[in-house]
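for the writeup, i need someone to sanity check this before i put it in the appendix. the sequnce is what the collaborator sent (i think, or maybe the updated version? ugh). structure was predicted straight from it, no edits. if anything looks off just tell me and ill rerun, i have time this weekend
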Amino acid sequence: MRSNELAQRAGVTVRALRHYHQVGVLPEPPRSPNGYRAYDVHDLVRVLRIKRLSSLGLALQDLPSLLEQPDDAESVLDDLDHELAAEIARLSAQRAVVAQLRQDGVPPDLPPELGRHATLFAAAGSSAALARVDREQAILLAHLAGGEGMAEVVRFYELLAAPEVVAASASLYAAFEALGTHSSTKDIERVADDVVAAAGPVLQAFDGSGTTLDLGGFESMLLSHTRDLLNTAQQQALTLIEERLTTLMET
């Protein structure tokens, strides 16, 4: 048999046969006078065994010993069983996350722990631009906090998701979004004052809860991200908000 005939009979591809040769699980057969590989029924049996073992999830590099001593497979099967159990657990956890995202109506690029809270602000009436800021901030904040800091991030978002905070968000989003080239200094200061009045108690509650949030010194990265997505008047308002919140937290 030539390689294409063997592949057809075994239900594999010619490319797979070449790969079997390369990794050493299928010995190279002798070649016919015209240079083609000449396979026989024994090669077909070996390919069928390789195919069967591979279908169980065994790696090709583990097959040579099994092909030579198929009855001595207890330790290999134990390892495979443990690997499969771990994979099932991983997939089950992944399905649980997918189910939670669907239940909460959360976009899949958001951390599932924060998604339900983060989407509250979009529902509060923020524009597409500010919704993008909130969404990307959540993604960046979760990454910077890491696995150990996720509980603190969730705690912070739970405080932000308080009904009174969410209720105030609609007007705050509208006022902040309205800032632009036409805005006066008083307009900018008024918006900053309103944001501080709403966000200040949340930050004080977070600080007073004994919770610490370590971002590894990358706080400036969060601010830089936000500034890049805002116009000049909004950036000025954000600077005032930062200064006033800092003063508030230091008192």
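The radius of gyration is 31 Å. The chain has three domains: 3-68, 73-104, 109-250.
thx in advance!!
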